[in-house]
Amino acid sequence: MATRRIIFEQLALDARIGILEHELRATQPIHVDAEFDVDVAQQVCDTDIHTVLDYRQLRAAIVDECTRRHVHLLETLTEQIVERIFREFPDVRTMRIRVSKPLAFSDCAAVGIEVQRSRNEPSN
C-alpha cells in the first residue's frame, strides 16, 4: 500500500521533564521532531480534509502527551508518544520520534532520544 509522510520539525514545547532538582520544580523547553508514514487509503480531495490524516490532530496528541504531567526520562516520554500515536491513529504505519532538550548542556545544541517504530513491532 502507498504511504504518505507527515513531518514535524522542532515542535517547541515547555514540558515538565527531568530528574534533577531544578527540573522537578519548573518546566523546560523541549523540541519534538517526528515523521509519520501514513497509509494512503483514498485519493486526496483538495476540498475535503477527511481524505487525508489531519496533521493538526497528530500535533495535538504530541503536545498533550508532552505537557500533561511530569515525566522523569526522555526515553519514557518518547515511548509514551509512540504508544499514543499508534493507539489513536490506525493509519500510521511507521514513525520516527525525536525528543530533545536544547538547554541541557551549554556545549551542544541539544541532547535527545530518538525512536523508530513500525506498527506491530515490539517496543522493547
Task: Report on this structure.
By secondary structure, the chain is α+β, with helices and mostly antiparallel strands. It has a single domain (3-118), classed as GTP Cyclohydrolase I, domain 2. Helix content is 27%, strand content 35%. The chain is built from three helices and four strands. The protein has helices at residues 21-25, 55-67, 74-88; strands at 3-15, 28-39, 92-101, 111-118. The protein has a four-stranded antiparallel sheet, covered by helices on one side. Helix 2 runs antiparallel to helix 3. The chain is elongated, with a radius of gyration of 16 Å. The two termini are 27 Å apart. This is 7,8-dihydroneopterin aldolase. Keywords: Folate biosynthesis, Lyase. Its EC number is 4.1.2.25. Residues 6-117 form the Dihydroneopterin aldolase/epimerase domain. Catalyzes the conversion of 7,8-dihydroneopterin to 6-hydroxymethyl-7,8-dihydropterin.
What would you say about this model in short?
The chain is α+β, with helices and mostly antiparallel strands and about 120 residues long.
Give keywords.
alpha+beta, 4-stranded antiparallel sheet, 3 helices, elongated
> In terms of per-residue confidence, which ranges show pLDDT below 50 for 5 or more consecutive residues?
none
Give the number of DSSP strands: 4
Percent strand? 25-35%
For the record, the CATH class is Alpha Beta
Indicate the CATH topology: GTP Cyclohydrolase I, domain 2
The helical percent reads 25-40%
Shape field: elongated
Catalytic activity: 7,8-dihydroneopterin = 6-hydroxymethyl-7,8-dihydropterin + glycolaldehyde
Function: Catalyzes the conversion of 7,8-dihydroneopterin to 6-hydroxymethyl-7,8-dihydropterin.
GO molecular function: dihydroneopterin aldolase activity
Pfam families: FolB (PF02152)
